């Protein structure tokens, strides 16, 4: 039997589980769930409604229930709380790591968040409250306060003993900060280095330089540093460079996935769902799209106003109307390409707002070259079908529109970052609307000049 044949089909599981839930056949349902892996149960839960998820979660063994809960998106964790008993909710919340609690607290209503915090043991409440003190979006809200450290002057053997003492509660033990007497990070040692070193060797003899990030830094920036440098964990420090937490690689990847999902949604003119599509209520999907559609509809009135202003020009040369979709479509696509490229470069740290003039010059040249190529093709087709002067209008317009669209699309994400707005918000939908209006103005002005209208 092949591996593919051994792996359960999620659709078949849903078809099996749904009737059992409807009949409340909990004994058979438990038998179906028992052999499934944690990831398979998560996939099943993501395709069910709120009530069904709560029933299945209650049937899981205590340890399995926690594993499944930890793997669910925070939005589904919040939903699941409404279907569980208070005792189950308190137990699950208390067993989460402090940084995982923060993802959940950002999703649940404020009243429930306060109740969850009050139900924590004193030591766990102190740890979680410390993270809550940082603003949303900062890495301080995503770091773990449970980690292992060693100190300059300590030996490898003493450091290993410190690791053993924290194995039960530390979230990461593979990257160990070396602190000086002021709790500042003097360097980093790995668990591998400790195990391979002479037991009596001081850790400062083989520690490596440390990369750190301040707790107030944007979580995406710190996460990008962690992944770019291939670190298992990144030390997080306060304004006085004292160690206060660690950003682990799994949390860094989670942050980047979350940010990229947001960017992808906003570039398409919608708000991110933050949960699997099939488990998202239709009303939530509508709400994530309607505001953007209204904003873009208002913006599109600019295009209507431009067409109205040049109505007389269109009446004199009706052929001009035939090329309107081509020109505004090409301009919008050119601007979107530039915006997507620069937004991605911003996320990777390849460009910064101070590079705006360099980006502008590159996009002006890129847009001009694209416009020359497309304009030459447009000139040939329009001249052949209509007349050479009409071909000249189309060719010049494509050159101008591509140049303007690329320049605007390239600098808008940088302007957004400079004013601390999500660059994705300034991307495709707004650029398309802007370029549509300006492209038509350029088109009709060129037509008036060339055709002597």
From TrEMBL:
Residue span(s) of domain CBS: 143-206
UniProt xrefs under Pfam families: CBS, MgtE, MgtE_N
InterPro entries reported for this sequence: CBS_dom (IPR000644), CBS_dom_sf (IPR046342), Mg_transptr_MgtE_intracell_dom (IPR006668), MgtE_N_sf (IPR038076), MgtE_transporter (IPR006669), SLC41_membr_dom (IPR006667), SLC41_membr_dom_sf (IPR036739)
TM region positions: 290-310, 364-386, 392-416, 428-451
Subcellular location: Cell membrane; Membrane
Gene3D superfamilies tied to this protein: CBS-domain, MgtE N-terminal domain-like, SLC41 divalent cation transporters, integral membrane domain
Sorted UniProt keywords: CBS domain, Cell membrane, Magnesium, Membrane, Metal-binding, Transmembrane, Transmembrane helix, Transport
Subcellular location, principal: membrane
Recorded topology in the membrane: Multi-pass membrane protein
Subunit and interaction comment: Homodimer.
Alphabetized PANTHER family for the sequence: MAGNESIUM TRANSPORTER MGTE (PTHR41394:SF8)
Function: Acts as a magnesium transporter.
NCBIfam families: mgtE
Family membership: Belongs to the SLC41A transporter family.
Protein name: Magnesium transporter MgtE
């Amino acid at each position: 039997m092949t591996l593919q044949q051994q792996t359960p089909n999620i659709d078949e599981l849903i078809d099996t589980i749904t009737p059992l839930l409807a009949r409340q056949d909990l004994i058979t349902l438990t038998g179906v769930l028992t052999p499934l892996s944690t990831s398979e149960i998560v996939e099943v839960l993501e395709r069910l409604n709120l009530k069904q998820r709560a029933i299945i979660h209650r049937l899981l063994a205590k340890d399995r229930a926690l594993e499944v809960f930890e793997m669910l998106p925070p939005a589904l964790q919040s939903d699941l709380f409404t279907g569980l008993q208070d005792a189950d909710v308190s137990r699950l919340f208390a067993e989460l790591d402090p940084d995982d609690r923060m993802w959940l607290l950002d999703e649940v209503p404020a009243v429930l968040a306060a109740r969850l915090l009050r139900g924590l043991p004193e030591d766990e409440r102190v740890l979680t409250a410390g993270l809550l003190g940082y603003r949303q979006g900062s890495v301080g809200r995503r770091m773990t306060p449970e980690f292992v450290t060693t100190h300059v002057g300590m030996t490898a053997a003493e450091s290993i003993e410190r690791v053993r003492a924290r194995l039960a509660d530390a979230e990461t033990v593979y990257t160990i900060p070396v602190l000086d007497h002021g709790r500042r990070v003097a360097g980093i040692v790995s668990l591998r280095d400790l195990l391979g070193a002479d037991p009596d060797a001081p850790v400062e003899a083989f520690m490596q330089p440390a990369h750190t990030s301040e707790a107030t830094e944007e979580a995406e920036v710190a996460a990008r540093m962690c992944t770019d440098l291939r670190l298992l964990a990144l030390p997080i420090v306060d304004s006085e460079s004292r160690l206060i937490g660690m950003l682990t690689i799994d949390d860094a990847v989670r942050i980047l996935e979350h940010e990229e999902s947001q960017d992808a949604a906003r570039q398409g003119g919608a708000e991110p769902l933050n949960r699997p599509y099939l488990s998202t209520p239709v009303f939530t999907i509508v709400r994530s799209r309607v505001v953007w559609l209204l904003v873009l509809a208002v913006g599109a009135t600019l295009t209507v106003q431009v067409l109205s202003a040049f109505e007389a020009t269109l009446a004199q040369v009706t052929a001009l109307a035939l090329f309107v979709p081509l020109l505004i479509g090409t301009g919008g696509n050119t601007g979107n390409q530039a915006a997507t490229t620069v937004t991605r470069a911003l996320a990777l740290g390849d460009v910064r707002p101070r590079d705006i003039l360099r980006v502008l010059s590159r996009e002006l040249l890129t847009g001009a070259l694209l416009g020359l190529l497309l304009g030459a093709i447009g000139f040939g087709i329009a001249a052949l079908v209509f007349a050479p002067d009409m071909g000249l209008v189309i060719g010049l317009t494509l050159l101008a529109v591509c140049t303007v669209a690329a320049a605007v699309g390239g600098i808008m994400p940088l302007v957004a970052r400079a004013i601390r707005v999500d660059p994705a918000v300034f991307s495709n939908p707004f650029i398309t609307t802007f370029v549509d209006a300006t492209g038509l103005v350029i088109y009709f002005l060129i037509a008036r000049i060339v055709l002597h209208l």
